[in-house]
Specification:
Radius of gyration: 11 Å
Largest sheet: none
Order of helices and strands: HH
Strand content: under 5%
Oligomer: single chain
Number of strands: 0
Distance between the termini: 21 Å
Structural class: mainly alpha
Number of helices: 2
Helix content: 55-70%
């Protein structure tokens, strides 16, 4: 699977929410958390 990289800016409120989600899912990085959330979203 080909991967593309994107750089995004997020507001501080979203950063806090992503950090909370990262800890709950026991993931290592915010980009990994975003990938998992998007994957879950598109599976539905």
């Amino acid at each position: 699977m080909a991967m593309k990289k994107y750089m995004v800016s997020v507001p501080e409120e979203m950063e806090r929410a992503l950090e909370k989600e990262r800890k709950e899912r026991m993931l290592e990085t915010i980009p990994e958390t975003i990938r998992i959330i998007l994957s879950d979203h598109f599976r539905k």
